[in-house]
Protein backbone atom coordinates (compact mmCIF):
# COMPACT_ATOMS: atom_id res chain seq x y z
CA UNK A 1 0.00 0.00 0.00
CA UNK A 2 2.64 2.50 1.11
CA UNK A 3 4.94 1.53 -1.77
CA UNK A 4 2.16 2.29 -4.23
CA UNK A 5 1.44 5.59 -2.50
CA UNK A 6 5.08 6.70 -2.63
CA UNK A 7 5.34 5.64 -6.27
CA UNK A 8 2.28 7.72 -7.10
CA UNK A 9 3.71 10.74 -5.27
CA UNK A 10 7.05 10.35 -7.04
CA UNK A 11 5.37 10.26 -10.44
CA UNK A 12 3.34 13.32 -9.51
CA UNK A 13 6.40 15.32 -8.45
CA UNK A 14 8.86 13.84 -10.96
CA UNK A 15 6.77 12.64 -13.94
CA UNK A 16 8.53 10.48 -16.49
CA UNK A 17 9.05 12.31 -19.76
CA UNK A 18 9.89 10.83 -23.14
CA UNK A 19 13.48 11.55 -24.18
CA UNK A 20 12.41 11.79 -27.81
CA UNK A 21 9.27 13.96 -27.80
CA UNK A 22 9.49 15.32 -24.20
CA UNK A 23 5.87 14.46 -23.49
CA UNK A 24 4.83 12.83 -20.23
CA UNK A 25 4.97 9.04 -20.21
CA UNK A 26 1.76 7.49 -18.79
CA UNK A 27 2.27 5.64 -15.50
CA UNK A 28 1.06 2.37 -17.05
CA UNK A 29 3.63 2.55 -19.85
CA UNK A 30 6.37 -0.03 -19.25
CA UNK A 31 9.10 2.02 -20.89
CA UNK A 32 11.04 4.36 -18.60
CA UNK A 33 12.66 6.55 -21.23
CA UNK A 34 10.46 6.72 -24.34
CA UNK A 35 6.71 6.83 -24.89
CA UNK A 36 4.94 4.06 -26.80
CA UNK A 37 4.18 6.44 -29.68
CA UNK A 38 7.87 7.23 -30.20
CA UNK A 39 8.75 3.56 -29.82
CA UNK A 40 6.74 2.82 -32.96
CA UNK A 41 8.46 5.67 -34.82
CA UNK A 42 11.94 4.15 -34.61
CA UNK A 43 12.79 3.53 -38.27
CA UNK A 44 14.13 0.00 -38.74
CA UNK A 45 16.46 -1.34 -41.40
CA UNK A 46 14.87 -4.00 -43.57
CA UNK A 47 16.36 -6.34 -46.19
CA UNK A 48 17.66 -6.63 -48.78
CA UNK A 49 20.85 -5.30 -47.17
CA UNK A 50 24.00 -4.00 -48.82
CA UNK A 51 26.65 -6.71 -48.41
CA UNK A 52 29.10 -4.07 -47.22
CA UNK A 53 27.49 -1.33 -45.09
CA UNK A 54 24.23 -3.13 -44.26
CA UNK A 55 21.89 -0.39 -45.44
CA UNK A 56 18.71 -1.29 -47.28
CA UNK A 57 19.41 -1.62 -50.98
CA UNK A 58 17.60 0.44 -53.56
CA UNK A 59 16.00 -1.47 -56.45
CA UNK A 60 18.66 -0.43 -58.95
CA UNK A 61 21.38 -1.98 -56.75
CA UNK A 62 19.67 -5.33 -56.12
CA UNK A 63 21.48 -7.20 -58.87
CA UNK A 64 24.90 -6.26 -57.46
CA UNK A 65 24.01 -6.67 -53.75
CA UNK A 66 26.04 -3.57 -52.93
CA UNK A 67 24.98 0.07 -52.66
CA UNK A 68 26.40 2.77 -54.91
CA UNK A 69 28.43 4.36 -52.09
CA UNK A 70 30.11 1.15 -51.02
CA UNK A 71 30.94 0.15 -54.60
CA UNK A 72 33.23 3.20 -54.74
CA UNK A 73 35.05 2.45 -51.48
CA UNK A 74 37.54 -0.08 -50.20
CA UNK A 75 36.16 -0.78 -46.74
CA UNK A 76 38.37 -3.04 -44.62
CA UNK A 77 35.66 -4.81 -42.62
CA UNK A 78 33.91 -7.83 -44.11
CA UNK A 79 30.37 -6.70 -43.48
CA UNK A 80 28.40 -4.25 -41.34
CA UNK A 81 24.90 -4.46 -39.87
CA UNK A 82 22.56 -1.97 -38.17
CA UNK A 83 19.02 -2.49 -36.85
CA UNK A 84 17.96 1.15 -37.31
CA UNK A 85 18.15 4.05 -39.72
CA UNK A 86 19.94 7.06 -38.22
CA UNK A 87 17.04 9.49 -38.22
CA UNK A 88 14.22 10.75 -36.03
CA UNK A 89 13.68 9.03 -32.68
CA UNK A 90 16.74 6.77 -32.71
CA UNK A 91 18.98 9.70 -33.63
CA UNK A 92 17.64 11.63 -30.63
CA UNK A 93 18.14 8.67 -28.30
CA UNK A 94 21.70 8.09 -29.47
CA UNK A 95 22.47 11.78 -28.94
CA UNK A 96 21.06 11.61 -25.39
CA UNK A 97 23.05 8.43 -24.72
CA UNK A 98 26.30 9.67 -26.20
CA UNK A 99 26.46 13.35 -25.29
CA UNK A 100 24.04 13.90 -22.38
CA UNK A 101 25.22 11.20 -20.02
CA UNK A 102 22.20 8.91 -20.33
CA UNK A 103 24.27 5.77 -19.85
CA UNK A 104 21.20 3.86 -18.61
CA UNK A 105 20.08 3.78 -22.25
CA UNK A 106 22.81 1.24 -23.04
CA UNK A 107 20.67 -1.76 -22.09
CA UNK A 108 17.51 -0.95 -24.10
CA UNK A 109 19.55 0.29 -27.07
CA UNK A 110 21.72 -2.82 -27.02
CA UNK A 111 18.42 -4.73 -26.91
CA UNK A 112 17.60 -3.36 -30.37
CA UNK A 113 20.87 -4.81 -31.66
CA UNK A 114 20.28 -8.14 -29.92
CA UNK A 115 16.78 -8.43 -31.37
CA UNK A 116 18.17 -7.70 -34.84
CA UNK A 117 20.87 -10.37 -34.47
CA UNK A 118 18.26 -12.93 -33.45
CA UNK A 119 15.69 -11.93 -36.06
CA UNK A 120 18.12 -12.22 -38.97
CA UNK A 121 20.06 -15.12 -37.48
CA UNK A 122 23.42 -13.38 -37.73
CA UNK A 123 26.27 -15.86 -37.06
CA UNK A 124 27.33 -14.46 -33.70
CA UNK A 125 27.98 -17.98 -32.36
CA UNK A 126 30.88 -18.24 -34.83
CA UNK A 127 32.59 -15.08 -33.54
CA UNK A 128 35.45 -15.32 -31.07
CA UNK A 129 35.25 -11.92 -29.41
CA UNK A 130 33.52 -8.56 -29.31
CA UNK A 131 35.62 -5.40 -29.50
CA UNK A 132 34.15 -1.92 -28.95
CA UNK A 133 35.46 1.02 -30.95
CA UNK A 134 37.58 2.88 -28.36
CA UNK A 135 37.59 6.57 -27.51
CA UNK A 136 40.77 8.59 -27.14
CA UNK A 137 41.60 8.96 -23.45
CA UNK A 138 40.86 12.70 -23.47
CA UNK A 139 37.37 12.13 -24.89
CA UNK A 140 36.78 9.25 -22.49
CA UNK A 141 37.54 11.57 -19.57
CA UNK A 142 35.19 14.18 -21.00
CA UNK A 143 32.24 11.78 -21.46
CA UNK A 144 33.08 9.59 -18.45
CA UNK A 145 32.09 6.46 -20.38
CA UNK A 146 32.47 4.93 -23.82
CA UNK A 147 29.06 4.28 -25.34
CA UNK A 148 30.47 1.54 -27.60
CA UNK A 149 31.87 -0.31 -24.56
CA UNK A 150 28.50 -0.26 -22.80
CA UNK A 151 26.74 -1.60 -25.89
CA UNK A 152 29.41 -4.28 -26.34
CA UNK A 153 29.17 -5.39 -22.69
CA UNK A 154 25.41 -5.81 -22.98
CA UNK A 155 25.84 -7.85 -26.18
CA UNK A 156 28.54 -9.96 -24.56
CA UNK A 157 26.26 -10.74 -21.65
CA UNK A 158 23.33 -11.60 -23.92
CA UNK A 159 25.27 -13.88 -26.26
CA UNK A 160 27.90 -15.14 -23.79
CA UNK A 161 30.82 -13.72 -25.73
CA UNK A 162 34.14 -12.33 -24.55
CA UNK A 163 34.29 -8.53 -24.67
CA UNK A 164 37.88 -7.38 -25.19
CA UNK A 165 37.83 -3.90 -23.69
CA UNK A 166 41.20 -2.18 -23.96
CA UNK A 167 42.60 -4.50 -26.62
CA UNK A 168 42.07 -1.94 -29.37
CA UNK A 169 43.46 1.46 -28.43
CA UNK A 170 42.83 4.89 -29.92
CA UNK A 171 46.23 6.50 -29.47
CA UNK A 172 45.73 9.47 -31.78
CA UNK A 173 43.34 12.29 -30.94
CA UNK A 174 41.39 13.15 -34.09
CA UNK A 175 38.87 15.77 -35.08
CA UNK A 176 35.21 14.91 -34.55
CA UNK A 177 34.06 12.99 -37.62
CA UNK A 178 30.65 14.70 -37.68
CA UNK A 179 32.24 18.00 -38.69
CA UNK A 180 34.06 16.55 -41.71
CA UNK A 181 33.07 15.77 -45.27
CA UNK A 182 33.19 12.12 -46.31
CA UNK A 183 36.51 12.23 -48.12
CA UNK A 184 38.22 13.79 -45.08
CA UNK A 185 36.85 11.27 -42.58
CA UNK A 186 39.08 8.48 -43.87
CA UNK A 187 42.27 10.54 -43.68
CA UNK A 188 41.23 11.91 -40.28
CA UNK A 189 41.20 8.47 -38.63
CA UNK A 190 44.16 7.03 -40.55
CA UNK A 191 46.67 5.39 -38.16
CA UNK A 192 44.64 6.42 -35.11
CA UNK A 193 44.30 2.88 -33.69
CA UNK A 194 46.74 0.34 -32.32
CA UNK A 195 46.58 -3.03 -30.55
CA UNK A 196 47.90 -3.74 -27.07
CA UNK A 197 48.23 -7.48 -27.76
CA UNK A 198 48.31 -8.10 -31.52
CA UNK A 199 48.66 -11.86 -31.03
CA UNK A 200 45.26 -11.96 -29.30
CA UNK A 201 43.39 -11.36 -32.57
CA UNK A 202 45.38 -13.67 -34.84
CA UNK A 203 43.05 -16.02 -36.77
CA UNK A 204 40.04 -14.71 -34.81
CA UNK A 205 36.56 -13.81 -35.99
CA UNK A 206 35.71 -10.42 -34.48
CA UNK A 207 32.63 -8.29 -33.98
CA UNK A 208 33.36 -4.55 -33.82
CA UNK A 209 30.70 -2.52 -31.98
CA UNK A 210 29.94 1.19 -32.30
CA UNK A 211 26.90 3.44 -32.02
CA UNK A 212 26.59 4.76 -35.60
CA UNK A 213 28.02 3.91 -39.01
CA UNK A 214 27.97 6.77 -41.49
CA UNK A 215 30.79 6.65 -44.04
CA UNK A 216 32.33 3.58 -42.40
CA UNK A 217 35.69 5.35 -42.04
CA UNK A 218 36.23 4.69 -38.33
CA UNK A 219 35.15 1.04 -38.43
CA UNK A 220 37.16 0.45 -41.59
CA UNK A 221 40.34 1.82 -40.04
CA UNK A 222 39.83 -0.26 -36.89
CA UNK A 223 39.24 -3.35 -39.04
CA UNK A 224 42.42 -2.61 -41.00
CA UNK A 225 44.48 -2.67 -37.80
CA UNK A 226 42.85 -5.91 -36.67
CA UNK A 227 43.42 -7.60 -40.02
CA UNK A 228 47.01 -6.41 -40.20
CA UNK A 229 47.52 -8.30 -36.93
CA UNK A 230 46.05 -11.46 -38.45
CA UNK A 231 42.34 -11.28 -37.66
CA UNK A 232 40.41 -13.54 -39.99
CA UNK A 233 36.97 -11.92 -40.23
CA UNK A 234 35.83 -8.54 -38.93
CA UNK A 235 32.12 -7.79 -38.80
CA UNK A 236 30.73 -4.49 -37.60
CA UNK A 237 27.45 -3.84 -35.83
CA UNK A 238 26.08 -0.46 -34.86
CA UNK A 239 22.77 0.84 -33.56
CA UNK A 240 22.09 2.81 -36.72
CA UNK A 241 23.44 3.73 -40.13
Question: How is this structure best described in words?
Answer:
The structure is a single chain. The chain is an alpha/beta fold. It has 2 domains: 1-41, no CATH class; 45-240, Rossmann fold (3-Layer(aba) Sandwich), CATH 3.40.50.2020. It contains 9 helices and 6 strands. Helix 5 (106-119) crosses helix 7 (147-159). The protein is globular.
Gross CATH architecture of the largest domain = 3-Layer(aba) Sandwich
Which class of the largest domain in CATH terms? Alpha Beta
Series of secondary-structure elements, N-terminal to C-terminal: HHHEHHEHHEHEEHE
Q: For the CA atoms, what is the radius of gyration?
A: 19 Å
Provide mean pLDDT, rounded: 89
Helix % is 25-40%
- Tell me the major beta sheet: 4 strands, parallel
Strand content: 5-15%
Through-space gap between termini: 47 Å
Could you say which overall geometry the principal axes of the C-alpha atoms support?
globular
Number of strands: 6
Strand order of the largest sheet: 1-6-5-2
- The tally of domains stands at 2
**Which runs of at least 5 residues are low in confidence (pLDDT < 50)?**
1-13
Query: What is the third-level CATH name, the topology of the largest domain?
Result: Rossmann fold
Structural classification: alpha/beta
Q: Helix count, per DSSP? A: 9
Amino acid sequence: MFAGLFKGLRELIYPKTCLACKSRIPAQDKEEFICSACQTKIEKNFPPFCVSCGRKLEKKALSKNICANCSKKNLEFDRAFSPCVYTGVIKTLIHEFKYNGKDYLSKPLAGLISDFIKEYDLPIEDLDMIIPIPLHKSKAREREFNQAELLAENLGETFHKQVANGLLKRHKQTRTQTTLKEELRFSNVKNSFSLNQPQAVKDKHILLVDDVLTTGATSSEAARILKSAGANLVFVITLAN
